[in-house]
Specification:
There is one protein chain. The protein is an alpha+beta fold. It has three domains: 145 residues, no CATH class; 58 residues, SH3 type barrels (Roll), CATH 2.30.30.60; 85 residues, Alpha-Beta Plaits. It contains ten helices and ten strands. It has a five-stranded antiparallel beta sheet. Strand 3 and strand 4 form a beta hairpin. The longest helix is centred in the first third of the chain and has 35 residues. The chain is elongated. It starts with a helix and ends in a 19-residue tail after the last helix.
Length: 352
């Protein structure tokens, strides 16, 4: 009785064949669960003891991507016990290719993201973190595009004509959007070459301000006046740019003039006076002070010194302090600053 029931046929397969299929699938799932419980957990405990993070990443990603494929593999091998129609067999094959493609893309994107975060981004760098968030969507679109092409090719579609059409269309789109593409490539140049970062104080073509945002097409700068300046990335990469935040010390050159009535003795004292004043101010390095030239209405001295630091406010505070001290010392010594004057000499002659 039981044997006759087992030999009954349903959809080209005996009931015994269906039971064998179920048993094979359950045994396969049980083996996978043992592998997951014993082997994977031991690998995780071993990875926790190591200093590197790559083993943790590989184990976690493998668990997420490989285990689902193992379950499908168990199902696929179990179906070999059954006699299925060509349509169902084809559907199972297509499902396998789709799953392999999806999990392969997932695995590749995870590897790229891990490489960027752990090898390109070292330490806490907010700028690079923002750049990774900006670049990853482009990476994902590219990888998924290649994955879809791979999938269609394996499904038997003739993609050569499609690729040729996309190539012609791509040329047309590139010509129409060459400005946008130029800004995109300039964005990558800024991203990897890093001529400036968010928070840097820069000047470009007479405009100056602090970088607030670096986008795929434009970069936004907050000027000293408070308004937002928007530059295309191509403009920035094609221009001469001054980055003051990268400046470890600031070179300062200024001139002052004294009257022509100043005695030679006092003129010779001025360079020493200036040197002593600058050396008395913190975070300054004196370079030189010289009697520079004879001006139209003054004797001109040129002074050069350095300020340690990049802050513009610090530079102005130090220069102000130096100016106050120069004024104080000159008043003590009776040295007068020059200002535009004109002397008129009259000659009186006797007419006979």
């Amino acid at each position: 009785m039981l044997n006759s029931i087992m030999q009954q046929t349903f959809l080209q397969n005996r009931i015994l064949d269906y039971l064998i299929f179920i048993a094979a699938f359950l045994v396969s799932v049980f083996i996978i669960q043992i592998f997951k419980t014993v082997f994977v957990k031991r690998l995780k405990r071993w990875a926790e003891k190591t200093k590197t993070t790559i083993d943790d990443f590989l184990i976690h990603t493998t668990e997420k991507a490989i285990l689902p494929l193992l379950y499908f593999g168990a199902f696929y091998l179990s179906t070999r016990c059954l006699t299925l129609s060509p349509v169902i067999n084809k559907g199972i094959d297509i499902l396998g290719i789709v799953l392999l493609t999806i999990f392969g893309i997932y695995f590749l994107i995870k590897i790229i993201n891990y490489a960027l975060e752990n090898y390109w981004l070292k330490g806490k760098d907010e700028t690079k973190e923002r750049n990774i968030k900006a670049i990853m969507p482009i990476v994902k679109v590219t990888v998924w595009g290649l994955g879809v092409v791979f999938l269609l090719n394996n499904l038997g579609f003739k993609i050569s004509a499609v690729i040729a059409g996309l190539g012609i269309g791509g040329v047309a789109v590139a010509l129409a959007a060459q400005t946008v593409l130029g800004d995109l490539f300039s964005y990558f140049a800024i991203l990897f070459d890093r001529p400036f970062e968010i928070g840097d104080f820069i000047t470009i073509d007479g405009y100056l301000g602090t970088v607030e945002h670096i986008g795929i097409k434009t970069t936004r700068i907050r000027s000293l006046g408070g308004e937002e300046l928007v530059f295309s990335n191509t403009d920035l990469t094609n221009s001469r740019l001054h980055n003051y935040k990268r400046m470890d010390k600031r070179r300062v050159v200024f001139r002052l003039g004294v009257t022509y009535e100043t005695s030679l003795e006092k003129l010779k004292e001025i360079p020493g006076i200036i040197r002593d004043i600058i050396e008395s101010v913190d975070d300054t390095i004196f370079d030189r002070a010289h009697f520079f030239s004879y001006g139209d209405f003054s004797l001109i001295f040129e002074i050069v010194y350095y300020i340690i630091g990049r802050s513009y406010n610090k530079y102005m505070d130090i220069q102000q302090e130096i100016n106050f001290k120069i004024k104080e010392e000159f008043e003590k010594r009776g040295i007068e600053f020059a200002y535009p004057t004109q002397t008129l000499y009259l000659s009186k002659t006797n007419n006979e």
